[in-house]
Amino acid sequence: MVGFRETLTHEAGELAFAEERRAAALRRKLALHDETGAKLKSDVDHAASAAARIHRYQPVIDETPQCPHCWILRAKKEPLSNQESGGKNDLFKCRECGYEVPLEP
Ligand SMILES: [Zn+2]
After folding, report:
1. Res 84 pLDDT > 90
2. CA–CA separation, 21 vs 9, rounded Å?
3. DSSP 55
4. What is the rounded average pLDDT of the residues 16-35?
5. Collapsing DSSP states into helix, strand and coil, what is residue 104?
6. How much distance in Å is there from the Cα of 97 to the middle of ligand 1?
7. What is the structure's pLDDT at 64?
């Protein structure tokens, strides 16, 4: 029975070693998962606060139209300048981000 006791102990040791390795692999996987989760949470917060900026958007400041793209996505007040072509096809364009808005939709 002494020999069998050693055999069982050896078997248990092998199983424990395999589980130890599995735990280490899972820990690495969990760390990556946490990283992805943190990135997603940050993206969610960023998108939600960008969306909330609509409530503070000023389309025109001192007669100057303001770029909606810069405000919503970057929280920056940037003027739109008129790309004069004459008539209703006039385009307003942001020099900062290139966003274009027609004078009349
Ligand atoms: Zn812009």
Report:
1. no
2. 18
3. G
4. 96
5. coil
6. 4
7. 94
Long-range contacts, stretch 31-34, CB < 8 angstroms, 24+ apart: none
CA distance 68 to 28: 42
Does 37 score more than 90 pLDDT? yes
| 94 Cα to the center of ligand 1, angstroms | 5
Return all residues near 80 (Cβ < 8 A) that are at least 6 apart.
Answer: 64, 65, 66, 67, 92, 93, 94, 99, 101
pLDDT of residue 1: 79
Q: Which residues surround ligand 1, an ion (CB under 5 A)?
A: 67, 69-70, 78, 94, 96-97, 99
- Does pLDDT of 49 surpass 60? yes
